[in-house]
Amino acid sequence: MSRPSVNRSGEMEVFVKAVELGGFSAAARHFRMTPSAVSKLVLRLEERLGVRLVNRSTRKLQLTPEGHAFYERTTRILADIDEAERCASAGESPTGRVRLNVNASFGTHILMPLVPEFRARFPAVTLDIIQTDAVVDLMEARADVAVRAGPLKSSTLIARKLGATRMMIVAAPSYVERNGMPSSLDELRAHDRLGFCYARAVDGWPLGKTGETVVLPASGTVLVSDGEGLRHLALAGAGLARLAEFAVREDIRAGRLLTVLEDLNPGDREDIHAVFLGQGGALPSRVRAVLDFLASHARVRPMLPNGLRQGRQASE
């Protein structure tokens, strides 16, 4: 009697769902199976592959390095299967849910104003948008796309550059009225320099001309977890803040914030990328639609010089 064929795609679906839901019991409830049946299925899969995919010594499901690699490949294969079925039955229109992790400033000032246009173009795509400046693990967060500012660490993620933003020091007029406008690096040392409560690639404020740059550490009594929180502190007059130009350009144009020591701005920029798992050709159409839309509509461009409201000029 011949051996029955193995339902490989079915095994992949159960394995992927166990990873995404965090355990065998949750996957069993999803597929209306028993936890022991899910456990046996994964064990058979491991035996056939000849590798351990899951560590079972802890209550929380943990993948081995081989399990991580298998998960990434199987999600792409299942996405291709779904894509083929959708294309055959409903044409090429993207459908489904896309989960995005974006830093708070990008989400507030760049992405959110574009959502209505995206929805008009892709009405069958649902967006789950999580705003956080924390660098998340896309697989653990079950995110399809993340937008990150600053240098990218070496990883298996694929990146598409969305632009770069100049950094600048700003202060509210109310803060300047109380404390004065610093006109030199030495004067700046005496001011409240608000910062972040997590490590950054450049953990301080670079100041000076090319080749003579010094990094001044943040010194304020308030630290925050995201750029939007820092911007609101600056608007409230709590201290000086060094922020991305795109996040404060409208505040500067409206006079809500003033630029500080622009003559000592070294012109350093933070690159902004959309990152995602897998190769571009294996992406579901719904994820590809989001990435293409970000690349064409969410470009981060510099502000024109005449949009600046210089601190010393405004305070005269």
Automatic annotation (TrEMBL):
Query: What keywords were assigned to this record?
Result: DNA-binding, Transcription, Transcription regulation
Task: List the Gene Ontology MF annotations in alphabetical order.
Answer: DNA-binding transcription factor activity; sequence-specific DNA binding
Q: Fetch the Gene3D superfamilies from UniProt.
A: 3.40.190.290, Winged helix-like DNA-binding domain superfamily/Winged helix DNA-binding domain (1.10.10.10)
> What InterPro entries does the entry give?
LysR-type_TF_proteobact-type, LysR_HTH_N, LysR_subst-bd, WH-like_DNA-bd_sf, WH_DNA-bd_sf
Q: Which PROSITE patterns match?
A: HTH_LYSR
User: HTH lysR-type domain: from which residue to which, for each copy?
Assistant: 12-64
Q: Which GO terms describe its biological process?
A: DNA-templated transcription
The answer to whether the entry has keyword Ribonucleoprotein is: no
Family according to the record: Belongs to the LysR transcriptional regulatory family.
The name this protein carries in UniProt is: Transcriptional regulator, LysR family
The organism is: Sinorhizobium fredii (strain HH103)
